[in-house]
Amino acid sequence: MSIAAQKSDPPAWRALLGYVRPHRWALLGGASLSLLTGATGLMLPLVARDLIDDLSDDRAITGALVLMSALVMANAALGALGSYVLRRTAESVVLGARRSLSSYLLRLRITAVDRSEPGDLMARITSDTTLLREVTTDSLVGLGTGGLTLIATLALMGFVDPVLLGVTLAVIVGAGAVLTLIVPHISRAGRRAQDAVGVMGASLERVLGALRTVKASGAEPREERALHEAAEESWRQSVRAAKWSAAAGNTAGLAMQVAFITVLAVGGARVATGAIDVGTLVAFLLFVFYLMMPIQSVVGAITRYRTGSAALDRIQEAMRLPAEPVAGPAVLPAPGAAPAALAFEDVRFRYADDLPYVHHGVTFTVPARGMTAFVGPSGAGKTTVFSLIERFYEPDSGTITLDGRELADWELSRLRSSIGYVEQDAPVLSGSLRDNLLLGNREADDDEVARVVKTTRLDGLVAKLPEGLDTLVGHRGTKLSGGERQRVAIARALLRSPRLLLLDEATSQLDAVNEAALRDTVADVARTTTVLVVAHRLSTVTTADRIVVMDAGRVRAVGTHRELVTADPLYAELAATQFLAAGG
Ligand SMILES: Nc1ncnc2c1ncn2[C@@H]1O[C@H](COP(=O)(O)OP(=O)(O)OP(=O)(O)O)[C@@H](O)[C@H]1O
């Protein structure tokens, strides 16, 4: 996984504030309720003391009892409300992060996706965002309420005896120095634990995405080991983080005990010299005791923030991957819209700076309407032509124009809405058959769907499925055959009434009858639309209006089948040896 942190990354707390800002008032409300709960709790002993005084002085205790009951009720009610408000706010922060991250991931550039593991990206949305929950409530609120209580207690201590306050502060500063050494270990271990969860997500995605192949290859034990290793690495790092967190918590506890003893010793000496009286010393020691709670809460907040900040860093890294601009909903071309004309002019392209060029100056023109077939040996760069037209990638040099206008000048959603694209492996998404057909055009009505289902010869399939178009097709369409998936992909593209249809022909999977039918359908579409086909069948190339022969990233010839068979030796060889199904 190469989503790496950059030196210039802003600190995690700034990102956290970004997520929390929309919920600041709810968070403040929850924190105030927590403070109020604490205050009602602190008042209870005072009222109890009054009640005991009343009892010993033979006074009526009804008033004190009523007050105590009211305080107990208020404490419980405020506590429950405060905790609900805080948890709800924390969940809203998680929701906000999940929403923005998932929207962002849908806009990722394909180059970024090429460099990422989908399983790791999934872990960032699911697991890492969950950690924001604790960071929001425990860290932010703990730091706020604990910090306020700490300041108030220290102020009162300074009021009682500044010298003893100095002693206490010296101990606290010493403990703080130790904590600054411990805290980075918590961050590091937290980061590694979350990275290991990402690795596990990636391994899971790899296995589940190809479970049949894994089983058929007998690779379960090896894949199981990889999954377990990732789980164990996460465990190891989480345990390491727990160890350092425990050390931090105990350092705080130890510091308070050291402060207690030091205050006792220095305070005793001051009592002996008459600088303070015993009452002052006792009151101060009580304050040292009370100091424990806010200090624990502040240290807890810091340690939890450090674990959570690792998750925040991972979320921010994903949010910095290159993405496409935000676009409004795409407007599909009206049925009967003019077909598109396309031109490549000296296009050079490579998938990454450290990879060799795939296109070395590709030039061809495709007029509006008609079918153009791309042929050539495997790896010649045919599918890459389609990827560049869809602007999944940008060429390094040269120009690509659609209707005479450079692709870079097109609004991306508008460009893509003009195109119907059928990928070679014809992906089908989990959901119903209808969902899949309407993926590219939600607006298509039942008549249009029925027509396209018929032209792509899916009507037989629909009739035999238990729930027709509403039958679920399984994860990645596993309940469909390869040929059916391909026809679904073609039907989906046709429902968009594209001005340019890109068809990356599968190398197999269609039986002769369906192939002939689809060839007729595509030929029919080519009468009104511009169709580009990466062709693997003789029947396709013989019906094409023109054929572009590609070899090693260059266009070596353009012509019809008849012309090329005699004019281009490579084409003649391909026609004789490589094209599938000779039914032309
Ligand atoms: N996402 C990618 N990242 C890096 N290299 C890639 C990527 N996609 C394709 N390539 C490389 O680019 C070259 C051209 O690939 P392309 O898919 O365009 O070939 P093709 O002519 O369509 O081949 P085939 O007929 O086998 O589908 C190949 O060498 C391939 O390995």
Automatic annotation (TrEMBL):
Q: A Pfam family this protein belongs to?
A: ABC_membrane
How is this protein named in the record? ABC transporter ATP-binding protein
Source taxonomy lineage? Answer: Bacteria, Bacillati, Actinomycetota, Actinomycetes, Kitasatosporales
Which PROSITE patterns does this UniProt record tie to the protein?
ABC_TM1F, ABC_TRANSPORTER_1, ABC_TRANSPORTER_2
Domain ABC transporter, which positions?
Answer: 342-577
Q: Which residues cross the membrane?
A: 25-48, 60-86, 140-157, 163-183, 244-265, 271-292
This protein's UniProt keywords: ATP-binding, Membrane, Nucleotide-binding, Transmembrane, Transmembrane helix
Provide the protein's localization: Cell membrane
Highest taxon listed in the record's lineage: Bacteria
Membrane topology, record value: Multi-pass membrane protein
One GO MF term: ATP binding
Q: Output the InterPro entries linked to this UniProt entry.
A: AAA+_ATPase, ABC1_TM_dom, ABC1_TM_sf, ABC_transporter-like_ATP-bd, ABC_transporter-like_CS, P-loop_NTPase, Type_1_exporter
Stored Gene3D superfamilies: ABC transporter type 1, transmembrane domain (1.20.1560.10), P-loop containing nucleotide triphosphate hydrolases (3.40.50.300)
Q: Does the keyword Flavoprotein apply?
A: no
Recorded hits in PANTHER family, A to Z, give: ATP-BINDING CASSETTE SUB-FAMILY B MEMBER 10, MITOCHONDRIAL (PTHR43394:SF1), ATP-DEPENDENT PERMEASE MDL1, MITOCHONDRIAL (PTHR43394)
